[in-house]
Design goal:
Length: about 300
Amino acid sequence: MDDEHDEDHEDSPASETVSFPFDRMTVARFRETFPKARWSDRLQAWMVPGKMARRRVDRWLASEADRKTPFEEAKGRDAFEFEPILSPYLEVHDRGLRVRTPYSRTVVDELRQIPFARWNGDDKVWEVPYSSYDELQQRWEAIEDAAKWAEPSERRKRAEARRGTEEEAKAKRRTLERRKKRLPVPSDDLPPLGRPIGTTAYGVVVITEITGELVDQNEVSEHHPDVSAEHVWAGWRLPTLEELVHTWPARHEPSEYEKDRGWWQPTLIELREARRQAKSREKRKGRNQEPVRGV
């Protein structure tokens, strides 16, 4: 596969990753379906460009899962019956297994590493064929631990435990500072205006203005410990999904210099997470703007 390794599409404005066990026939079918896809050594996955990439990839994974030999399916069923995963997050489905958990980035990352696992958007559940049961079993401890951590009841317990503590007070001060939508930047190395950048403090944001006001180190040392007397305030906002889709990712992780100054060109992984968050924000905004029927 070395001659097919090409990282150029890691920089595609809109793309999705897909991984599956290597065999020449599967790769040939994949390349026939996705001729523009390229292999990423860094991600150890194929990059499929396009705004509809995730939907197309899911359809292909479903068709490939159907190609699994009866022996592989039977082997997975036998393994499940002999040593089943007993968990409220796992259920048996007519086509295999279903994983349903509270949202967790860790759960999503783990499931995406399982060959032919796919997200069923209609039923809001991950589907895993029996042929991939061994891989699911190997990752299940991490999946279940992350799911338990994400349960609303566990979130409430952690919130109760923090109540009245210095940790809670610090979190409130951090929230208050974030609401000010300001970022200290070095006066001799200013970020670009109007396009998404990665930041140490707030993730991927868009700088809206450079005020020129000098930062008081004593005032912000708790939230921005690396600020010096040469920093000025910049205003910021969250990026839109459209802005993120059209942002070109950096080829490399930010350097130490970029981390020290507090901003950089965002990486593909950062952009993917920012796009997910932006999509969720826009969905919520759309629901809130829907007209009330019968009024």
